[in-house]
Amino acid sequence: MAPSHVLRCCQRGLSWIPVIFINLVVCWSYYAYVVELCIYTIPNAEEQVIYLVVFHVCFVMFMWSYWKTIVSKPSNPSKEFCLPKAEKEQYEKEERPEAQQEILKKVARNLPVYTRTGSGAIRYCDLCQLIKPDRCHHCSTCDHCVLKMDHHCPWVNNCVGFSNYKFFVLFLAYSMLYCVFIAATVLQYFIKFWTLCRRRSVEHCPENQLPDNHAKFHVLFLFFVAAMFFISIMSLFSYHIWLVAKNRTTIEAFRAPVFRNGPDKNGFTLGFRKNLAQVFGDQKKHWFLPVYSSLGDGYTFPTRLVNTDSEQGIVDHQSSSKCSVDGQTNSRPLSDSQNHLLSNDVHSDEQKDCSVAKADNGLTVIVTVESES
């Protein structure tokens, strides 16, 4: 027990190395840009003020979204998805997988769970001992199940999921903006330092040439580092924007979610605007701020096609579940996200075809098919 505990503590300590590295690079870039470039290199006071104001806006938004991604605790499934005591004891005593599945199906009838494993079985986590909600996965690094898990990011030392995915996308956007602004404003001084001042050893530079001091090394490296990070972040940002537009997670992009009728990679796609609203919210004034505005509760998600599950009982959608976001516990109905996103929009130009079907248990199900924009 003791060696494993020490090893776990060492792993937790080492996991902060990428975060420390990023913050050291950012601190150096702040010093190089503000002090070495704007104060020591740029001679024009008006140009200095403009550069400093825009730079600090980008810097604040970048660091704000970055640390929101780090400190936002991943949302975990509530106790509602844990097996009751009697069923749990019966599940642990049972050795046959078929009998264990029957126990899970019995409990899952009262839960809003519609996705399955690849073999069609109920998704159950043996480590957390709970039935996984839709789009929930177990993170081996965090060692617990995460709602709408996307991936575990070592650069933020956190699991990116339902509670902080918006912050992660904004972090990529503002870090890319931060890098491109630095590269664009440093470029002219980079060229001057790189070309003209190299001749200082053989001939005199023009009188208006930049001073030959240690600032030129900071400016040269600042451009290279900003350009390198911009190129790498741009590809990652483009990929996640595509995921947002398709309403998929990184896990679902590689392995399509499985419903009762089989795998469907577009099962959660509602059209571009509603897909965007699920991550950034329905109020555009909050889209570009690292404040929580995502729709839903992390347990249930509206689907493009709602199918009647013969093995799924009538779920009491009025029962409340608890969702923890940024340390705050919110109580809301499990079907809030469905009711909010699938409400009628009189101004929508999306064409909808609705039909009514009768389930075996007499429950009326409205099937809505939306054309993907």
Automatic annotation (TrEMBL):
Chain ranges of the Palmitoyltransferase DHHC domain: 122-254
GO cellular component, one term: membrane
Keywords recorded for this protein, A-Z: Acyltransferase, Membrane, Transferase, Transmembrane, Transmembrane helix
Alphabetized InterPro entries for the sequence: Palmitoyltrfase_DHHC (IPR001594), PFA4/ZDH16/20/ERF2-like (IPR039859)
GO MF annotation, one: protein-cysteine S-palmitoyltransferase activity
One Pfam entry name: DHHC
Major location category of this protein: membrane
Protein topology in the membrane: Multi-pass membrane protein
Transmembrane segments: 20-42, 49-67, 167-191, 219-242
Enzyme nomenclature, EC number: 2.3.1.225
Comment block on domains: The DHHC domain is required for palmitoyltransferase activity.
UniProt-listed PANTHER family: PALMITOYLTRANSFERASE ZDHHC16
The protein's name: Palmitoyltransferase
Organism of origin: Pygocentrus nattereri
Biological classification of the source: Eukaryota, Metazoa, Chordata, Craniata, Vertebrata
